[in-house]
Design goal:
Elements: H1 2-10, H2 14-34, H3 37-40, H4 42-62, H5 72-86, H6 89-101, H7 103-108, H8 114-142, H9 151-179, H10 182-195, H11 210-218, H12 222-233, H13 242-269
Helix pairs in contact: 2-8, 4-5, 4-8, 5-8, 5-9, 5-12, 6-8, 6-9, 6-10, 8-9, 9-10, 9-12, 9-13, 12-13
Length: 271
Amino acid sequence: MSTVTTADTAGPPAAPKSWAALGPLTARSLKSCLRTPSLLLSPLLTSAFFMIIYEGQLSSVTAAATPGGRYIDVVLPLCLLTTAFTGGATAGQLFVNDIGSGYHARLWLTPVGRWALLAAPVMAGVVVLAAQAAALTGLGLLLGLDPVTGAPAILAIISATVLLGTGFLLLAGAVGLHTGNSSAVGSVTLVFFPLSFFTATFVPRDQLGGWMAHAADVNPLTPPLEAMRGLLTAPWNEQNLLPGALVALAILVTGAAAAHLALTRRTRTGV
């Protein structure tokens, strides 16, 4: 009888405790990112390096084939796409670090809702990804980026990167929560990185031919990449952004489902 009474009194406060704990848990995850330069700087510096190289070496030979004659309009979305899935490993690595240190096991003994323990690293990853996308877009402006629709396009492409990256954050978080293994988390990036080279990587989609054009047609990364380029190069009412948005939402839903399954498994097994 006393057991039932304890459960009844302990159950209801769980939700308020979870919401109250979400902010501190997210702040702690952000501090962990700041203390781990590889999580914060590696995706940013890698994408910035390739953006400068691609724009510097290819702009003179491809500018005539690009909308508005600015190659940065082509290469910036590619670098943002790459940042979305490389930076998406942030949540998974945070889980791996906490599981390895035993901190995650201690959190598991608290009354905080399990969803909050998952949401905090993902939210921290979203903040980091937004900062990385803003920094890369700022670099793009220095390299000559001049969107047709102006400032709204800049905000839209950063938001698109965050939306796409949140799906990857959830996928990597699910892998990290399920395995506790850093190499397994890195495999999420390894799956998508080669795909980025089988789409319209260096030129607009209509410039591709042969087997590469067919590969780009079936590549799931092509619609979001083309949508992000469209945000910069033409009025939005002339663009078909729906395919890219649907792919981003599909990745988000898949990541959420995978994270839910990983969380359910860990809750049931306690490991």
